[in-house]
């Protein structure tokens, strides 16, 4: 399970070039979690860093139908992917963008 949260400053990249209007009357914008506890491992580290918490679920990957469903969601619903934003990140893409997506 994953938890995602994002607050952004309404730059052009985050508003689909200005098509999505920001309603500043709703500010201040705040995001928080209550009673959220997590016990996880750092991605890319050896299983020893997780102690006895390591389980088979931590190494599961998407199967072919799951990858196809993910691609469909990305193509039909993803608004922005910073891995492809060379104007905003001219110094190059980040480490996670260099890894295989599937």
* Beta-strand residue fraction: under 5%
SSE pattern, N- to C-terminal: HH
Rg estimate, integer Å: 18 Å
Secondary-structure class: mainly alpha
Q: How many domains would you count in the coordinates? A: 1
Mean pLDDT across all amino acids: 76
- The N- to C-terminal Cα distance equals 18 Å
Keywords: Glycosidase, Hydrolase, Transferase
EC number: 2.4.1.207
Organism: Penstemon davidsonii
Protein name: xyloglucan:xyloglucosyl transferase
What does this structure look like?
This protein is mostly helical and 102 residues long. It has one domain. It is 18% helix and 0% strand. It contains two helices and no strands. It has helices at residues 64-77, 95-98. The mean pLDDT is 76. Residues 54-97 form the Xyloglucan endo-transglycosylase C-terminal domain. InterPro entries: Beta-glucanase-like, Beta-glucanase/XTH, ConA-like_dom_sf, XET_C. It catalyses: breaks a beta-(1->4) bond in the backbone of a xyloglucan and transfers the xyloglucanyl segment on to O-4 of the non-reducing terminal glucose residue of an acceptor, which can be a xyloglucan or an oligosaccharide of xyloglucan. It holds the Pfam family XET_C. Its EC number is 2.4.1.207.
Please sum up the structure shown.
By secondary structure, the chain is mostly helical.
Task: Name some characteristics of this structure.
mainly alpha, glycosidase, XET_C, Beta-glucanase-like, extended, about 100 residues, single chain, hydrolase, xyloglucan:xyloglucosyl transferase, about 0% strand
């Amino acid at each position: 399970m994953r938890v995602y949260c994002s607050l952004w400053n309404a730059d052009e990249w985050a508003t689909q070039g200005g098509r999505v209007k920001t309603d500043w009357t709703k500010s201040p914008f705040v995001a928080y979690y209550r009673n959220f506890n997590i016990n996880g491992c750092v991605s890319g580290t050896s299983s020893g860093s997780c102690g006895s918490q390591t389980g088979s679920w931590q190494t599961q990957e998407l199967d072919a139908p799951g990858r196809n469903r993910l691609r469909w969601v990305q193509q039909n619903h993803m608004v922005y992917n910073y891995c492809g934003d060379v104007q905003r990140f001219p110094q190059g893409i980040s480490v996670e963008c260099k890894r295989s997506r599937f």
